[in-house]
Design a protein that fits this description.
Layout lengths: L2 H23 L4 H12 L17 H36 L8
């Protein structure tokens, strides 16, 4: 088994899990902070909906939708980090090499 893949997975797995948990739980307002920063960075772009009949929602409602979306993405990151760790542990215990996508 290639050592660098195991070391990388052992480092990346918990890092992805911690970032995902922080985003999903809004730990110390990290999700809201990130969404506010992203919206302010993108505020130079004019918001034109692809369909004219879409209602122009207020800023607070858009902020709440993006926070919810980012929290869902955080949960997915947390699950992905745990799956990375499970895969590494399984590969280390069985001695089989980690599967790669080709």
């Amino acid at each position: 088994m290639e050592t660098w893949r195991v070391v990388a997975a052992v480092i990346i797995g918990p890092a992805v899990s911690l970032v995902g948990v922080a985003m999903a739980s809004n730990f110390r307002g990290v999700t809201e902070w990130h969404v506010r920063r992203s919206m302010s960075a993108a505020s130079v772009l004019q918001r034109v909906p692809p369909w004219r009949w879409l209602p122009d929602v207020p800023h607070g409602e858009r902020l709440a939708r993006f926070i919810l979306l980012e929290r869902v993405m955080g949960a997915a990151f947390a699950v992905a980090g745990v799956m990375i760790l499970v895969t590494v542990c399984y590969s280390a215990l069985t001695g089989q090499p980690m599967q790669t996508a080709k």
